[in-house]
Design brief:
The protein is mostly helical. The chain contains six helices and three strands. The protein has a three-stranded antiparallel sheet.
């Protein structure tokens, strides 16, 4: 209420300083799923999308702001901040895809190998982690 009142008073005092509101077409929101797909396409890794999707679905349910492991892991792939430190905030979806792709490559050799590692851990230990 106070903000609206302030804006109204400001507009009356300085009409040239407050531009007239112009309705703009709001672009359709791009889903997290599509942003991940496009990011992997940009990295030339579109063939690995199903494997990355398998992990992101199970780690965060496609929530780029998901927090797990008592607050120590977060993001689409649940980056462990105790091991890797905090990511820059805000951490965009394309930046998450780049980081988790690096992680999948370094630890497993790629997304599909990471998915197999996740499945193995689920089978052996009773929970998935990668």
């Amino acid at each position: 209420m106070k903000i609206v009142l302030f804006a109204t008073v400001l507009a009356m005092m300085l009409p040239e300083a407050v531009p007239e509101a112009v309705p703009e077409a709001v672009p359709e929101a791009v889903s997290v799923y599509d942003q991940v797909r496009h990011s992997l396409d940009d990295l030339g890794r579109s063939d690995e999308f199903p494997c990355a999707a398998y992990i992101f679905e199970r780690e965060s349910r496609w929530n780029p702001e998901a927090v797990g492991d008592r607050g120590w892991s977060w993001g689409l792939g649940q980056r462990n901040t105790k091991v890797w430190g905090m990511a820059p905030l805000p951490w965009s979806i394309p930046d998450q895809v780049i980081w988790f792709t690096w992680y999948a490559d370094e630890r497993y050799g790629g997304w599909c190998e990471a998915m197999e590692g996740w499945k193995h851990n689920r089978h052996v230990y009773g929970w998935g982690w990668w």
